[in-house]
Amino acid sequence: MTYVFQFGIVFDRFGELLEGAWLTVQLAAMALALGMAVALTCAYLRTAGPKPLRMLVVAYVEAVRNTPFLVQLYIVFFSLPQLGVRFEANQAALVAMVVNFGAYATEIVRAGIQSVPVGQIEVGRALGLKRFQIYRLIVLFPAIKAVFPALASQFVLLLLGSSVVAAISAKELTAIANTLQSTTFRAFEVYIVVAAMYLAIAVGFRAFFAAVYWFVFARGRER
Amino acid sequence: MKFVTRLLAAATAACLLLGLGIGQADAQVLDRIMKEKKIRITAQVDSAPFGILDKNNKPTGSEIETARQIAKDLGVELELVQVSGPQRIPALLSDRADLAISSLSITTDRAKTVWFASPHGALSIVIGGAKSVNIKSAADLAGKKIGMTRATLEEQEVPKIAPPGTNIVFFDEHAATQQALLTGQIDAIGCAAFLINDLAKKAPDKGIETKFTVATAFYAVAVKPGNYDLLQWVNTWVFVNKLNGVLAKIYEQNTGVKLVDLPTL
Amino acid sequence: MRTFGANEFLFILTAMQWTALLSLLAFAFGGLVVLAIAMLRISKRPPLRLSAAGYIQLFQGTPLLIQLFLVYYGLSLFGLRLDAWTSVTIAYTAYAAAFLGDIWRGCIQAVPREQWEASRALALSYFQQLRLVILPQAVRIAIPPTVGFMVSLVKATAVASIIGFVELTRAGQLMTNATFQPMIVYPIVAGLYFTLCWPLSVWAQRLEKGMRVGNALGTGT
Q1: ipTM of this predicted structure
Q2: Nearest CB neighbour to B171, from listed A82, A169, A203
Q3: For A94, A116, A141, C141, which has the most beta carbons within 10 A of its beta carbon?
Q4: Which one is the CATH code of B25-123+218-255: 3.40.50.300, 3.40.50.150, 3.30.70.100, 3.40.190.10?
Q5: Shortest CB distance from A81 goes to which of B6, B183, B226?
């Protein structure tokens, strides 16, 4: 008895997989935008905020970094409703992704900020810039530039990690794949195709980040 | 250059996976089982009353007991292969388990992929929900969010009767689906009738009740296509244990319901 | 109605050892495979270098869940009859090797070029250069990010729950189902992961601070 691969069945329903892939991309992109907002705020608080807030950010970052994303997802989807906070599956997925990426990005951005020489900040102060201006103009830009590759790879990890949100009925790529495999029973074909699609999405995002880096940080701009 | 690398990588992997896709299953599985003195059977422990964990967190339930009985009658050791619902068939096809005994309802679709023995149990698929949710018939499902588990009979049957506007969502396993119902993430659940009774008993404060029956079905042991010898033995086993009442006893003890007359496949 | 008590907590705690064991096995075997991959990755022969790069890209570019499924069920398609433990270990070894391979390649390449040149001038062969001069330096650089990766690995084992492998997360899921108290069970599960990961995290950070070589950014996941 040999196993005969039949990819035809998978490609017949490729449209559904593409829809799932689109939701995966949307979720990831939104998590990126919102997560960066969280990260910039938290990184600021972590490096320049009052002590209690600083501790709070540390607790948030460590709590997220030392527990699995899947468990975080279950807490958002299954546990929070008991406290009266209810998110739909896709929202819950997004919330968990933002919380997760936000924590990692906070830590990365913080490292970037601390890599900016103190002298630079003193120069800014000497120029009479306000605290927030210094943060925005002098600290943040070189900091982000320094940690951009780390942020990009963290994002790709989030993108790939998002495959587990299928477990709470969000309808992204892996969820569609699971439904497809349970109705066609061609599990191996479905997952091979889906693996290739994730690879393509990941490569696409990496190219996007490379382009952003080039336009924002590299192209004929000082530092 | 980097992109070319990645492309190459993907292509190589694809070729590897395709090229190696020829495996030989054992010609005589039964012989192997007897020789190894061990049979591997799927165990799904999140699907009461077919498979659950008891107070000491040991697997039990009607399908687990069926598996134990089969191993006993074969005179071999039983290895329970823990699976979640959607993994029941892949586990069988990939030789991870010799038999799938996890309340697999007999359907023509599934029969394209696995071989069924004669049925040894019956179940019905129902829509269930809290008393406060107003569902009396299929038409009331419109506008409601109905959750069910992938790769189940309900996944096939409920969409057929659901009116347009029904929001059907799928989870990867019963554990998650039930949890979604109890935490109010979904309005109603499509599942085996027994499960509703179990939920009503375990979480009385939620007031979960059966709304209406969607379909009834018989479930059976499944083997990987090609394993004639094992299938023949299982069929013989079902025949014998139907007549001597063992099947009925296992079923009634675990479900609390009398077993209906079983047809023969 | 069953409530969350000592029995349930014990069940979860017992499952925690499988999480720990799976992480350790994957790390140990991954570490063996990884050295080979890191060497191939910096090899001067393009086919060797490319195949190692391809392997890393493939495993870093696809979700662990999908890899797990393909390895878990795919291997036996090729006629290999493996038990659940072996196949899950293989899947996580492959995953760990890809990420560690990349980390270690970076560390080997972080050793200044002059070190290679100097050791070549001493008439050492390629492998002698690697073994005697480069690796001892690279290992020092590699330790902090490697410990950091162990944290990722422990967390990554949670994904095995989706294919029904009973480890910490799956045990939590089963207990949620038995007790219907997700608000108690999942935070406990999270707490147990934290007790596994937190010491490793702190250790990695300490090592990193102790080194402070150039770019101090870890490779977290």
Answers
A1: 0.85
A2: A169
A3: A94
A4: 3.40.190.10
A5: B183
